Amino acid sequence: MPIYEYVCQDCNAHFEVIRSMKDADEPIACQECHSVEHIKRMLSVFVATSGGQTITGSSPSCDGCSGGSCASCHS
């Protein structure tokens, strides 16, 4: 089953939950404040590397661009 990331807009807590795809958008309680009213599913991103080179996603050390396409991302 996939891991989904959520954010609580009441307390700003971020948490992950393993649940089926059919339940991904079903209501879920915040793990911190237990609110169920303002929970939003986040877009999950990942980075894969091979031999130190980023091959998908964006480099976590690059804050200057999105997608790792600027010169400062390719050091």
Defining traits:
75 residues; Rubrerythrin, domain 2; 0% helix; elongated
Write a structural description:
The protein is mainly beta and 75 residues long. The protein has a single domain (1-57), classed as Rubrerythrin, domain 2, CATH 2.20.28. It has no helices and five strands. The chain has strands at 3-8, 14-18, 39-41, 48-50, 53-56. The relative contact order is 0.18. The model has no long low-confidence stretch (mean pLDDT 79).
Quick recap of the structure?
With 75 residues, the protein is mostly beta strands. The protein has no helices and five strands.
The percent of residues in helical segments reads under 10%
Report low-confidence residues grouped into runs of 5 or more: none
CATH architecture: Single Sheet
Nearest-integer average pLDDT: 79
Shape: elongated
Radius of gyration: 16 Å
Beta-strand residue fraction: 25-35%
> Which class in CATH terms?
Mainly Beta
Order of adjacent strands in the largest pleated sheet: 2-1-3
In CATH, the topology is named Rubrerythrin, domain 2
Strand tally is 5
How far apart are the first and last residues' alpha carbons, in Å? 36 Å
Q: How many structural domains?
A: 1
Question: Topology as H/E string?
Answer: EEEEE
Helix tally equals 0
| Largest beta-sheet characterization | 3 strands, antiparallel
The helix-and-strand class reads mainly beta
Topology diagram in text:
Layout: E1 3-8, E2 14-18, E3 39-41, E4 48-50, E5 53-56
Antiparallel strand pairs: 1-2, 1-3, 4-5
